[in-house]
Amino acid sequence: MVEDRQKKQTGRRGEQIACDFLVGKGHTILERNWRSGHLEVDIISLDPKGIHFVEVKTRRPPFQALPQDCVDWAKQRNIAKAAAAYMRSAKGRRAGDAEIWFDIVAVILDGSNETVEYIPGAYTPIYI
Asked: pLDDT, tens digit, for every residue of 36-87?
């Protein structure tokens, strides 16, 4: 129970750091933790390049793999399905013909140090 609570706190902190980082890069945050059934997108943002569906992975050392390496094909497929549902929704239709991006923000929290790696266009789903 305590470990689950700590994981959730770490995830929430990472998502806030990611949002702040994206806003600093000129993004407007449209949604956080957007859900369609069992599918979820951590952050949906908009910038001059298009609409971004962002997966945030946050880790504390020690860890076995880089956070971004934990976004496997199954996770990518689910995010793509959620993105398709969002784009069919009234909110998504307002984005018009904006380019669609699938990004990853990797956050490493090591004591008081925060490392953020932003990977725009991290993958292009070819399956939905």
From this structure: 999 999 999 999 999 999 999 999 988 888 999 999 999 999 999 999 999 9
Look up residue 8 and give its amino acid. K
- pLDDT tens across 18-39, in order? 999 999 999 999 999 999 999 9
3-class SS shares of the chain: helix, strand, coil, % to 5:
35, 35, 25
> Distance between CA 84 and CA 75 in Å, rounded?
14
Contact 66, 114 (CB under 8 A): no
CB 44 within 8 A of CB 71: no
> Would you say the pTM of this structure is higher than 0.90?
yes
Q: Which string of DSSP letters, residue by residue, matches 81-92?
A: HHHHHHHHSHHH
- Report d(CA 10, CA 49) in Å as an integer: 29
